[in-house]
Amino acid sequence: MVVVHGVGDPQPGETLSLFTRSIAEEERPLYEAQQTLWLNEKPDLSESVTQVKTFPAHVRRLKLREGSIELVEGFWGDLSQVRRGPIGVIFGMFQILFGLRYVAYVAADQPGVAAHWLKKFGLISSRILHGPVMAVTFYLCILTMAVVGTQVMWPQSYTGMLWTQVVLAGCAGIAMLAAHTGNKITRSRIIKRFWFWVNITTMFVTGLMAIRYTTIDWHATVAQYSGAVHPGLIWYCRVLVVLLGLLWFVETLVVVAMGCCWLVAQFHPRANRRALHVAFLLPALAVGIWGQCMPLLWVAAKEGIVKLIKLEKFEALFDEAIPMLGIQFLMALVMTAVTLGLLVHYLRRRSVMDTEKFNRGQRVPRLLVHPVVQITLGICTMVGVSLVMWISIVENSGKSWDADWLGHLMGTANKYAIAVLMPLGGIILFLLPKMRGVFDIILDVVNHFYFRATQIKDALDDDDEFDIRESTFEAGTLYFSRRDQILQRIKRILAHYRDEYSHRPDLVMVSHSQGTMDVIETLNDPELDWLRNSFGKVTLVTMGSPVSHLYQHYFGHFYPTFSDRFWDTLHHNVDRWVNIFRVDDFVGLDIDFAHLPQTHEDCVSMNGDSETSQCQLHFAHCSNHPVGARGHVKYWADIEVLEILKKEIQIADVASATKAA
Predict the structure, then answer these.
(1) What is the DSSP string of 193-225?
(2) What is the CATH number assigned to the segment(s) 2-75+451-660?
(3) 226, 457, 476, 616: which has the fewest Cβ within 10 Å?
């Protein structure tokens, strides 16, 4: 029995401990032996092929009255899950924000020119946001610390020409050293690209320093803004603030272009509209979140500086850097209100939901992701973009953006945002560790679609039994590297037991949450063509599986119905599929088996000229089993779930067969 965990099982061996403890409630006395298998992982393609990693596979051998069962855990939490503690949760949140681009890219990977450009604009939006926008912000932080430091040590020194040149040279050295060190310690392409843009920003500021030193008249023209002249270091901060505003304006234009492509792509005859919604809304959501977080950080910096020193020109510069915080604040309030309303509705329905009501067709509201949330996010995106464009047009026309009633409203919202977001940010920071489970679920989806480019080195180093072909798309130019690592571990375990036994033992694969996707992908892998010859009856057990509720719902072009030829290997490898779910599970409910062939004969005809032995799975061999409303986690310790497992896969009979063999 191969046990593959999902969300909520962060420690190696924890899943097996919970599972065997539940079995012990029914089977007493229970004799248990523990062991840890150290299996070789696929060689790391970014390192020398002589360096081979290993991973632990915890084993429990249970001795029951009828015989014995061997359980082995396929652990992958170290590859995907959010780390524990506040720092781990914050790091996981950044992983999600940086990784939404991969989910959007796969969602837009559809036929049609409009979908193609929607996919490209999504990447462009992410690269602008995580490249030059963050690099300029990073450099602004360095200059801010330089201004504050010089003012504290030597008042008004930041206005002197010579001292400014010295400080700027020091800031450039710090930025270049940080970029060099960051490139050395990271293997992420996104982070490397960020450090590249930090170097570009350093060169830009250094060039400005040379220009200002030689052409004072040009400097004076640029420095004047609303009748004010920014001296010394503040002038460079002012230029970077203007540059940051231009970058956000370009980012807004990209979002507008994405919206146009999204609308046109809806009319393609083979378009998957739900996936197109994901492809447009996720990048827009990322822009909105960063557009809220970055001004909030500026506000926090300003409040701290004001308490330390009094620097009016610098305070005005901060106010200038966040004129559109009010827009983000209003949009965030609307999204929060809708989300909280949906959550309250979900909790009310959950409190009265049971299996009888579920069987009568009643459902709890969809949280991942409800259509109302999608519509609200789409409206907020369009309204927010329109307001940003309006402010930009007014500013370029020579007028003040807060001169009329709409601008005054935005200014008022900006003041309230500054007053509210500071304490609200502290509360959110305090509550972040409690949101680890939510981040864990989202990060699982992000890592499932995380990809990188295939290089020639990958093919040369990939002399392993399991290569990367099963997870390639677009003619092998990209592959899902993190998912590939997880699948490698499961296949390694299966290969170990293939070589361990000379007979053909029955195989039961029990999985939960995102782990069900990993098991389904593994059993549908053409590389496991030896599975039927190495094991007897193969039973698949899924618990709280998102395969239909999430992946087939939003990514139907990538995960079609189970009658599609895409699942031929799964039909061949699996004899029985048992799906267990809680009626209030917001991640995974019942799996859509309706499209499967009804009988074995239908299954054979579905495969055309395939041999009869190539078809095992059909509707009669698949079943959904609802249980009580207890959420998404702790399936392993649920006695009601264990009773279904004992009934459906007949643990006692499997144990007896193992003993006889």
Answers:
(1) HHHHHHHHHHHHHHHHHHHHHH-HHHHHHHHEE
(2) 3.40.50
(3) 226
Q: What is the pLDDT of residues 511-544, one digit of tens each?
A: 999 999 999 999 998 888 889 888 988 999 999 9
Q: Which residues contact 397 (CB under 8 A, 6 or more apart)?
A: none
- Residue 66 has a CB neighbour count (10 Å cut-off) of 16
β-bridge partners, 54? 40
| 400-434 per-position pLDDT tens digit | 766 777 777 777 777 777 677 667 767 777 777 78
- Burial (Cβ within 10 Å: 0-12, 13-18, ≥19) of residue 6: buried
Strand partners, 39: 55
Task: Please report, for the chain, the start and end positions of each structural domain, with discontinuous segments joined by +.
Answer: 2-75+451-660, 91-395+404-446
C-alpha–C-alpha distance, residues 211 and 646, integer Å: 78
Please tell me the predicted confidence (pLDDT) of residue 225: 37
pTM of the model: 0.86
Q: pLDDT tens-digit profile of 325-356?
A: 677 777 888 888 898 899 999 989 888 888 88
pLDDT tens digits along 270-288:
999 999 999 999 999 888 8
CB–CB of 15/59 below 8 Å? no
- Tokens 């029955």 appear where? 506
